[in-house]
Amino acid sequence: MSALPQNPRRAAAWPARTKYPKSIQRSDGSVRILKSASNNRKLGGTAKSDRITRGPHSGALFLAWTGIERSAGGGCPASCPFLTDGSDGPSCYGDAMALAHRFRWNKSVQRNIKRELREHFKIERRIVIRWGVLGDVIDDAENLPGTVAFLRELMDEFTGLRIFGYSAHAPETQTGRDIAALNRDYARRCIFRFSLSRESSGEHSYAAQEGFVAAGGRGFLCPEQRHDAQDKRLDGCYACGLCLPNSGTKLTVEFSAH
Ligand code: SF4
User: Fold this and answer.
1) What is the extent of the structural domain holding 117?
2) C-alpha of residue 253 to centroid of ligand 1, in Å
3) 202 in a domain, yes or no?
4) Residue 84 domain-assigned (yes or no)
5) Given this model, what pLDDT does residue 227 score?
C-alpha cells in the first residue's frame, strides 16, 4: 500500500495540501460530481466538446472526475515530486486549477457517482471518464473501497463505460500492481498510465514529465501541447484519444508542460 496516511490522526503529519481548500465540494448529491469534459480546456479543448470525436470511442459522452491534489487520502504517493508548494521547484498542475470542483473520497461520493452514471446510461450507450484530473489512485481503507476496487465495480455494472487516467505510483508498489491488474483485466476499457518518465514497455504504459524524450522512438509528444507551427496541433483529448483505452498505442506520452 502507499505511504499515504489514511488515518486522520496520521494525516496531520502529511506535509502538503491543495492551495484551494474552498473548492472542495459537497458530495451529497447537491453538486454534480462527474463533470462534462467541456468544462476543462485540456479535455474538451476550445471547442468545449463533451463528446469524443476520434478513435474507437468516437461519439462517447466525455466526463471527468476530480479528486484533491496533495491531500492525505487523495491517493498521492509520498514519492510524487509535486507534493511541495512549488516554492522550491516544479509544482502540481492543480495549482493552476483554482476553479476545479474537487471531491473527497468517501461513501457519499461513490454512491452519487454510481447514481449519476445510472442516469447517464439511460440515454447514453458509451461514456468515457477521465479519472482523477487531480489526486491519484487511492488505496482501500477500512469500510471504504479504494479507487481500483471501486472502478472494478463500475466496470462490471456499466459495460459501456471506458476509463483513462494517470498515476504517480510506481508499478513495483502494491498500488501499482493493483493498477496494472485493473489495466490487464479490463484491457479494452480501462487504462492508467504510470507518470514516471519511462520508455514504454511490453506490460505498462507511461506518461512523461517535461524534458523527457523516450529513447528509440518509444514515445510521442502530446498533440495538444505541440507549439511548432509545422505541427498539426490538436485541440484537446476529445479530438485525440491516444491516452484512452484501446487506442492502439502503448508509447509513452510526453508532456511539454506539467
Ligand atoms: S496524447 Fe491525446 S489523449 Fe493524451 S493527454 Fe495528449 S491530447 Fe489528451
Assistant:
1) 17-192
2) 8
3) no
4) yes
5) 64
Q: Any residues with Cβ below 6 Å from ligand 1, and which? A: 222-224, 234, 237, 240-243, 253
Lowest mean pLDDT, pick from 75-79, 191-195, 209-213: 209-213
pTM: 0.91
Helices 147-157 and 174-185 sit at what angle, rounded to 10 degrees? 10
Residue 100 lies in a domain: yes
Kindly state the cell numbers that stand for 60.
462517447
Count CB atoms within 10 A of the CB of residue 252. Answer: 25
* Structural domain contains residue 236: no
Using the CB atoms, write b or e for 81-106: b if 16+ within 10 Å. Answer: ebbeeeeeeebbebbebeebbbbbbe
The count of domains in the chain is 1
Read off the pLDDT of residues 82-125 as tens digits, 9 standing for 90 and up. Answer: 877 666 666 788 988 999 999 999 999 999 999 999 999 999 99
Backbone angles phi, psi at 157, to 5 degrees: -80, -40
Cell numbers 484551494: residue:
20
